[in-house]
Design goal:
This protein is mainly beta. The chain has one domain. Helix content is 13%, strand content 34%. It is built from 3 helices and 6 strands, in the order H-E-E-E-E-H-H-E-E. Strand 1 and strand 2 form a beta hairpin.
């Protein structure tokens, strides 16, 4: 089993995650890690990242029933070659990558699609100096898949 890349204070039930709106975590659905390197595969070109999916509902919404959905959070993580490096060295590997899923949802929303889940909220922010890859983006995408 791979190590957890998201701390319990970030994703435990009851925690409130702030994007443009506020979302309370109801439960964790799944967590994946995609870690590669040029040593393992010379064709590897992307950054290594971890991704978690959460079941959430909007905090403070006056809509009844409350707005529910799924949130996916992506974080760039260290490659095997940089695990022991100092933060300032790891920061040199920071990349800005918009997950294809988020890019697709934004394009579909811009085109007025009514056949796909609606993107309700999203945000990109940089990891701090104490994170896996300082300066890289943490992307949170909030979408509704199926009402629950």
């Amino acid at each position: 089993m791979s190590p957890r890349r998201f701390g319990q204070e970030e994703v435990s039930p009851g925690v409130v995650v702030e994007l443009e709106k506020r979302w309370r975590v109801l439960s964790q659905k799944e967590e994946h890690e995609f870690q590669g390197s040029k040593q393992d595969d010379p064709r590897w070109s992307g950054p290594s990242y971890a991704c978690i999916q959460l079941k959430v509902h909007q905090v403070g919404s006056r809509i009844t029933p409350p707005v529910n959905g799924y949130m996916r959070i992506y974080k760039q993580i260290r490659t095997e070659e940089t695990v022991a490096d100092r933060p300032e060295v790891r920061a040199q590997h920071a990349k800005t990558v918009i997950p294809p899923e988020l890019d697709a949802y934004r394009q579909l929303m811009d085109k007025g699609s009514t056949f796909t889940p609606r993107l309700l909220d999203s945000m990109e922010q940089k990891q701090d100096i104490y994170s896996f890859v300082p300066g890289s983006k943490v992307t949170s995408a909030k979408v509704v898949r199926n009402p629950f």
